[in-house]
Amino acid sequence: MLQRTMLMLISILALTGFLPGANAAGLDSAYLTGKWEINSDGACGKEDAEKLIVHDNATFEYGRRGKIEAVGFWRIEKDVVVFEMLTSPAYFQDIANELKDYTRHEVYSMQMMPLDMQQDQFSAVASIDDQMSRLVLQRCR
Questions:
Q1: 33 neighbors 52 (Cβ within 8 angstroms)
Q2: What does the pLDDT read at residue 9?
Q3: Residue of 17, 119, 28 whose CA lies nearest to 81
Q4: Please, what is the Cα angle at 31 between 72 and 11, to 5 degrees?
Q5: DSSP 3-state assignment of 104?
Q6: What is the count of structural domains for the chain?
Q7: What is the rounded CA–CA span in Å between residue 36 and residue 44?
Q8: How far is the C-alpha of 29 from the C-alpha of 16, rounded, in Å?
């Protein structure tokens, strides 16, 4: 029981960033650059997958269902990747059909803390405004 409690405590501390070195060892632009699929169960190429393309010039593209829905700039601050994106609020509502005539775009900021980094996959905790979610990103070639 004590071991399980300690394991849970260590996991919580790692997720919240209180353990030194528990986060993104080796996090740099070379690691992030490339094509990633989000929460795709380890299989690249699904038509409806969320795709993140991170360019080495500090820009990125994000899209779903074959369409680019957000573009912007990214940077690394300590163990956190900050994405400044330009997109329509329809992106967050997932009601693109209802807002198809909405032409205004806004700037949003997302912070993502990579965890459990492997060569072609990592999990992350991400936040936009007051929404947090856990993601798994798989590099696709």
A1: no
A2: 39
A3: 28
A4: 95
A5: coil
A6: 1
A7: 8
A8: 22
C-alpha torsion sign, points 30, 33, 35, 41: positive
Q: Write out pLDDT tens, residues 88-128.
A: 665 555 555 565 666 667 788 999 999 999 999 999 999 98
Q: Are 70 and 84 in contact (CB under 8 A)?
A: no
The answer to the question of residue 14 being in a domain is: no
Tell me 8's DSSP state. H
pLDDT tens digit string along 25-59?
589 999 999 999 998 887 788 888 899 999 999 99
The pLDDT, as a whole number, for residue 40 is: 84
The structure's pTM equals 0.73
Range of the domain at 87: 24-140
Would residue 84 count as lying in a domain?
Answer: yes
Is 43 within the bounds of a domain?
A: yes
**Is 3 part of a structural domain of the chain?**
no
**In this structure, what CATH number is given to the domain that contains residue 93?**
2.40.128.20
State the chain's maximal CA–CA distance in angstroms. 57
